[in-house]
Amino acid sequence: MVRKFDFLVIGSGIAGMSFALKVADKGKVAILCKTKLEEANTNLAQGGIASVTKLTDKFENHVNDTLIAGDGACDEAVVRMVIENAPSQIQELVHWGVDFDKDEKGNFDLHKEGGHSDFRILHHKDSTGAEIQHSLVKRIQEHPNIEVFENYFAIDIITQHHLGQLVKHTTPNIECYGVYVLNPKTRRVHTFLSKVTMMATGGIGQIYQTTTNPSIATGDGISMVYRAKGIVKDMEFVQFHPTSLYNPSERPSFLITEAMRGYGAVLRNRKGEEFMYKYDKRGSLAPRDIVARSIDTEMKLAGCDYVYLDVTHKPAEETKEHFPMIYDKCLSLGIDITKDYIPVVPAAHYLCGGIKVDMNARTTINHLYAAGECSCTGLHGANRLASNSLLEAIVYADKAAKDSLKIIDSIKINDDVPLWNDAGTSLNEEMVLITQSEKEVGQIMSNYVGIVRSNLRLKRAFDRLEILYKETEDLFDRSVVTKEICELRNIINAGYLVIKMAMERKESRGLHYTIDYPTKIEC
């Protein structure tokens, strides 16, 4: 089956949905969701969205905080563009129905998080992402030009390669004509053709054993673009959130928002000692890379699996009011956060690299845009400043919408694209081949490509993953396509890119810390 649209959006987080809303008045829009429209990384974001919204704060302060956190690897022009565009995009979210918390005077009730020099985090309790997701979903469902395809899986981007032409990473003017899409219920592959495609597939957290990301975060968009010979960069910069709830039986890990440390919570080791000032003068509010490495060091020194986050010194009712979701979650496990320390451990949380885009969200493949966590804009550099991710997503979705609307009338649907060819394949009934390989990838990445790395660990990870890659590609070529085999393929591809780019960086910078090059090269 062939379907044709003006705009095709892959992913249903803040980047994909806001882009869809901004272009829908000008053409037919399709949104592809791996599961339900409501399920995305955005939905899990607790802390909030950073923006200068009060008179005593300045754009320059937010810029400086972002550059410092990025450890010399940010694109300053991008940083300024995003931060200066933030207030207008916040107002658009409010217009779409997002209910950010206000104080008694009607002003935004702002939080402060690690790395920020001021209170500038807009939030809705401790479930900001869910509030944004809910508001955008409602708008999406009401728009007559937007068609949502739930439980559809994008397999590969369609380019000149599928027309019989040789396409390499050095090939000029690669074009995106749409995407091959699997309907897992019918096991049929559909051809979705489009004038413009937006990749908004989120991150890669599922390549690690411990992650705060939902099960859908398997690096699909990044892997599809890489296979289509688009440029991917900075994959070595994987951010581990310092404080996920220690609960080994639960995956993904439950996030304990950084806003709790902004509120006054402090990190303590297993002896109950506050330890962060040993590592950084900012204490528990140091940037995430520093906090995560410090926790990792304390756990290794003590030979334990977690440290503590202590908020017991704060007023109990105030804590419950600010963090109701965290309070209820911990209480369900027998932990009263107003009286008890919270056991926490770092978990893979956010990717600062991804699909290379320019300041209009254009990828290196024509008519293909990318926004959100799957993209690499230059905003985050080597380490994302807390709550800059939702901001980046909404600003770049806006840039992509404005740019694509300028060119949409000049693009024609390519009707020469062939249908998906699965001749000679058979249905693979041995799911153990896939599930076991997924577990192996998680073990390899967590053990060898985590918070602290070395040349030896990276080489071992590369060699182990290469074996899994060859086995999986052989299985994919022989099998009728399924969501499970595609996700495994993408997980391995994403892991390979992280390892490869980590091996190429001969320094420690931001989120990439290696014992073989413990200092960074000055930019």
Polypeptide structure, described:
This protein has 523 residues and is α/β, with parallel strands linked by helices. The chain contains 14 helices and 16 strands. It has helices at residues 14-23, 41-44, 59-69, 76-95, 128-142, 220-227, 259-263, 288-302, 316-322, 324-332, 389-407, 432-448, 455-478, 483-504, and strands at 2-10, 29-32, 49-50, 121-122, 146-149, 153-158, 178-183, 188-199, 232-233, 238-245, 266-268, 307-310, 342-351, 354-356, 368-370, 375-376. Strands 1, 2, 5, 6, 7, 8 and 15 form a 7-stranded mixed beta sheet that branches. Strands 10-13-12-11 form a 4-stranded antiparallel beta sheet, covered by helices on one side. Helix 4 (76-95) crosses helix 11 (389-407). The longest helix is centred in the last third of the chain and has 24 residues, at 455-478. The relative contact order is 0.17.
Give me some keywords for this one.
seven-stranded mixed sheet, 36% helix, 523 residues, alpha/beta, single chain
Chain-wise SSE layout:
Elements: E1 2-10, H1 14-23, E2 29-32, H2 41-44, E3 49-50, H3 59-69, H4 76-95, E4 121-122, H5 128-142, E5 146-149, E6 153-158, E7 178-183, E8 188-199, H6 220-227, E9 232-233, E10 238-245, H7 259-263, E11 266-268, H8 288-302, E12 307-310, H9 316-322, H10 324-332, E13 342-351, E14 354-356, E15 368-370, E16 375-376, H11 389-407, H12 432-448, H13 455-478, H14 483-504
Parallel strand pairs: 1-2, 1-8, 2-5, 8-15, 14-16
Antiparallel strand pairs: 3-4, 6-7, 7-8, 9-14, 10-13, 11-12, 12-13
Helix pairs in contact: 1-5, 1-11, 3-4, 4-11, 6-14, 12-13, 12-14, 13-14
